[in-house]
Amino acid sequence: METHYDIIVVGGGHAGVEAALAAARLGKRTALITLERSSIARMSCNPSIGGLAKGHLVREIDVLGGEMAKAIDATGIQFKLLNRSKGRAVWSPRAQADKRKYEAYMQAALTASPRLDIIEGDARGLDIKEDTVRGVLLQDGSRLSGKACILTNGTFLRGKIHIGDVQISAGRYGELPSIGISDQLRSLGFSVGRLKTGTPSRITKRSIDFSRLEKQEGDPDPLPFSYATTHFTPKNIPCWLAYTQDETHRILHSALDRSPLYTGKIAGAGPRYCPSIEDKIVRFSEKPSHQLFLEPEWEGASQWYVNGFSSSLPVDIQIRALRSVPGLERAEFIKIGYAIEYDFFPSHQIRRSLETRAVSGLYFAGQVNGTSGYEEAAAQGLMAAVNAVRNLDGKNPVVMERHESYTGVLIDDLCSKETSEPYRMFTSLAEFRLLLRWDNAHLRLLDISREIGLQPEAVLSRFEKVRRETRELVRAYEKQRLRPGNPLKLPLDRSASLALLMRQQKIDENDLRKIRQAYFPDHDEDSLDQAFVLTKYSGYIERQHKQVKKARRLEAKRIPPGFNYDRIASLSNEGREKLKKFRPETIGQASRVRGISPADIQVLLIFLEK
Q1: Pairing state of beta strands 116-120 and 30-34?
Q2: What pLDDT is attached to residue 608?
Q3: pLDDT at position 180, please?
Q4: Do 62 and 211 belong to one domain?
Q5: DSSP string covering 193-260
Q6: In a 3-state reduction of DSSP, which class is residue 388?
Q7: Which domain holds residue 477?
Q8: Taking a C-beta distance cutoff of 8 angstroms, is the pair 373, 54 a contact?
């Protein structure tokens, strides 16, 4: 085993996988430390990738050179484009995964990567000298030296599982927690908090009465996540929908005094957007029923995931409650649901490069930053590795702004907002979401992808061609006129431009193939579609570009590192406290920190001008 590395990644979850692959592919000698090789890229909760806003992140990971999109395209068993009935800004792809094949795909990608070693071991501490990370210390007493370290420990830092009155020290069920690193960093002055998440029961397929459930098919014309995927003909294995009943809620209510959520045994905050079933019936007591999605965990699986029934209640209550659901009366349990509590590092302690402020060369990514979700973790892992490599090469970090990507929104939110619960990405968090569509990630991130250097030139050239054609077609749509008796067979009284008809919603996406055949046979379908969106929503897009221009003026005003806010007597006490805590890098970022008023921003601007 080698002992000297450029970059060491601790943790083999979704953040760790992307971090290790990116670092190695960018030419750095990389080590990935994981407790068990077979658990790398494990889908410990829901067997799916993507979803609202999360699908955008996966697309961005793909354009920047990550692996998640390719992995799900190769191993998915059902694909859907969500929100198709709404505007383009909120369309999001989602896929059910064959979790076994997904793990195997990622493990094979890591194994095949030159300059990357996978080391089975328990990282118990960091070698830190003069506020700089020098390596990682393993439980067996060995030491790996490294110039940079990326922590992606997920739920393993002092992880504790709760099932009723039972508490188990674990990072995941059946897997040991990681002890030592969070205590060490706390001793060095890092703030350490506790968060909670959960997972539902798994039951056997043979015990489900599908005749009493609603079938949920994938799209008949599925679209891939990755721009590299061609000849896409994935499986379309259905999921099923069930509903809780009054009796279900009565059983759950009767046992709230046995729930660690309500007895105070769980100190960490859980996610509001994905509560445990016992929390759900209390917070949404007016609802007579809640949806449960029954999902196969792999193709031909005997083990099914009960999405929506996360719980930390005692075993007997979970069994009784789930068996009160129509179609699940004979449910056989393979695994019981549980809550897990774990350490994280409140993210005011990182820069937007994801490097920690206190220790040079130390990066945080994933749930250790207080986020939740495979996709959020993978995006952070990729960017942490990119910036660690650039730091070693003496280059400035890649920091995406909020108008450029959902990844930029995610990281900016982490660096400017208090983490009171696990952070999950939503389209509502992006104020420029019409510019950040899932379908245009390759156009808006092309220049950044070229700067990072993970994508082959052939791929970048293809993206450049689409961007060039899109600009040409936007102009062509304004010039090309349709007349009565046109090839599209649109009933027209007089001639009108394609652009006008698009804005009047007389032409939609379904007409683009005919338009291509009739007028633009040499242009790419993707280019026609991008130009259609830019034309149809031109007024709204122009308005957002004006908002971006206004916001960028504040982003351009940088705050010097180590700035002494105590010198400004007229700042509010809360504003000064938050500025000292979050250390924003720009005035724009400072304006997004909760507790900093517009008056504080004006005072800060005047002082910096002086």
Answers
A1: parallel
A2: 87
A3: 93
A4: no
A5: EEEEEEEEEEEEGGG--GGGSEEE---SS---S-TT--S-------EEEEE--HHHHHHHHHTGGG-H
A6: helix
A7: 456-544
A8: yes
Question: CA–CA separation, 119 vs 33, rounded Å?
Answer: 5
Same domain flag for 113 and 19: yes
Nearest Cα to Cα of residue 554 among 484, 608, 511, 497: 608
Report the distance separating Cα 510 and Cα 231, nearest Å: 21
pTM score above 0.90: yes
CA distance 112 to 66: 15
**Do 240 and 140 belong to one domain?**
no
Q: What is the DSSP letter of 270?
A: P
- What pLDDT, on a 0 to 100 scale, did the predictor assign at position 419? 79
- The pLDDT score that the predictor gives to residue 2 is 66
Contact at 8 Å (CB) between 442 and 63?
yes
pLDDT of residue 195: 93
CA nearest neighbour of 12 among 137, 159, 174, 178: 178
Residues sharing a CB contact under 8 Å with residue 521, sequence separation 6 or more, in sequence order: none
CA distance 264 to 256: 11
Query: Is there a domain that residue 159 lies in?
Result: yes
On whether both 123 and 266 belong to a single domain, the answer is: no
Same domain (yes/no): 20, 126? yes
Instruction: Please give the backbone phi and psi of residue 608, each rounded to the nearest 5 degrees, phi first.
Output: -65, -35
pLDDT of residue 424: 93
- Domains held by the chain: number: 4
| Rounded CA separation 435/402 (Å) | 10
Same domain as 208, residue 189? no
Question: Kind and range of the H or E element at 546?
Answer: helix 538-555
User: Considering 316, 341, 366, which residue would you say is the last residue of a domain?
Assistant: 341
Query: Which residues in the chain land under pLDDT 70?
Result: 1-2, 268, 270-273
Alpha helix ranges (H) inside 323-445: 374-392, 406-416, 441-444
